[in-house]
Amino acid sequence: MGDPTLPTPLEVLAEKVQKLPIEETFNKLASAVGGLEKIINSPEIGVGVKNLSQGMEEVKKLVKNINAEIKPLSAGVHEALKDTRNVLKNADSQIRGRLPASKASWGTRRSWFETWTARSNPSPPGWKEPWMRPGSSWAMSTGR
Predict the structure, then answer these.
(1) Distances (CA, A) of 81 to 18, 69, 76, 119
(2) d(C-alpha 94, C-alpha 116), whole Å
């Protein structure tokens, strides 16, 4: 057998268990459980859960309404884009029909554009020709 002065493992374990604050630990645990019970059973939690449920129903209704509104709005935007494309194609074809042949130089096109613009916006008195306006290609090439 072992030495009577050395404690056995069972005695060591028993001594450690005796030193544990078991009663204090159980009191804290009981207090925590009591606090949770008060929170769970409080009327505020019931009201909060009810309000949360009502809020979720309102969100569902809102999303349903938004979905119902988006379809017609999307169709309207799509139709407006389609109309815009058609207008731009029409304007492009009209402009291309009035421009000189594509073999013409940029300067020729610019002069034509300046002349065409001047016809739709006449020169102030004193200017002989619309293409002589300050900023026109002629004025820039002559330094005027």
Answers:
(1) 84, 19, 9, 32
(2) 13
Of the CA atoms within 13 Å of residue 137, those in its CB half-sphere come to: 10
Distance separating the N- and C-terminal Cα atoms of the chain = 124
pTM more than 0.85: no
pLDDT of residue 18: 87
* Residue 129, phi-psi category: left (phi > 0), alpha (psi -120 to 50), beta (remainder): beta
Cα–Cα dist 12/31, whole Å: 31
Please report, to the nearest 10 degrees, the dihedral formed by the alpha carbons of residues 80, 83, 87, 89 taken in order.
120
What is the C-alpha separation between 116 and 108, in angstroms, rounded?
Answer: 12
Rounded-to-integer distance, Cα 106 and Cα 133, Å: 19
Backbone angles phi, psi at 37, to 5 degrees: -65, -40
Q: Tens digit of pLDDT for each residue in 13-43?
A: 888 888 888 889 899 999 999 999 988 888 8
